[in-house]
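Supplementary Methods, section 5.1.

A reviewer requested that the exact input to the structure prediction be made available. We therefore reproduce it here, unchanged from the version used in the analyses.
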Amino acid sequence: MKAAFLQRTGPPEVIEFGDLPAPQPLPNQLLVRTRAVAVNPIDTYIRSGLIPVDLPRPFIVGCDFAGVVEAIGSEVRTFKVGDRVWGSNQGLLGRQGTFAEQIAIDAAWAYPLPDAVTDEQAAAAALVSITAHLGLVREAQLRSGETLFINGGSGGVGSTVLHLARALGARVFCSAGSDAKVQACRELGAEAAFNYATQDVAAELKKVAPSGVNVWWETTREPDFDRATAALAARGRLILMAGRDARPPFPVGPFYVKGCSLRGFVMFAATPEEQRAASVDINRWLAEGQLKPRIDRVLPLADAALAHRLQEESTVGKRGTLSGKIVLQP
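The structure derived from this sequence is encoded token-by-token as follows.
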């Protein structure tokens, strides 16, 4: 089978595209013929060695997938051959990734794919939607009628948080780095959106949420806690999902006087049961059209190295050049 893999960590060019033996499913696994996969920032961190982990060699890159079940292990009772499925959490914790024509995955990490949802939509939504759901529902406990500010609302995670928060009944405000991205946020359902390159976001946010926002979702790798704390309402919740190496100052006094809480989390540390619970809502919102993942571009799987380069430049390089996910097709 064709696959995008590496023998050592390094720049995007270490990714090779070629033939590898097709996997054989274990008793608890599915053999899936992939139809679409997607790139995430964490994929680039693992590939580059920025996050040092033990990897099998060769290592197939990628977390997300959508495809069709071609075979099932002897212990699997939840799926059958021919089922369309999607999922994430691959290419992590010793598991092989998804950038291949066929993948063998534990059935616990796969979810049924509604007929109305395309493979590209499912792959683009996978990691970011589970991340957004965990952050909004499990961590922030966002309720209908509350206010949410997304610091970076046009990217893959930010736009998904926007969709899910709207589906949960929240009022959403967000920032983005260009007028075009601001307009995209508004089209996605943001009540107000601000250009952080040309506007005073704190002042503008104060106009639309004078008492502060209930939840501040931080997407950047170097959060400004002073600004976030000032914008939070009493008992506000600050959600972190990035910034592994960040060491910013923190306004302890203002934060605890307001009774605020800070919650950080990583999607891949959530249990299979927690992620499966998230997938139920995600499937419903995808099928109903309430969740429409932003896809920046679709490339062939052979362009995996290019996709990693584009993702890395946008996130680690802080260029912000992507407006949504890169999806690849085997």
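The first strand starts at residue 2 and ends at 6. These observations are discussed further in the main text.
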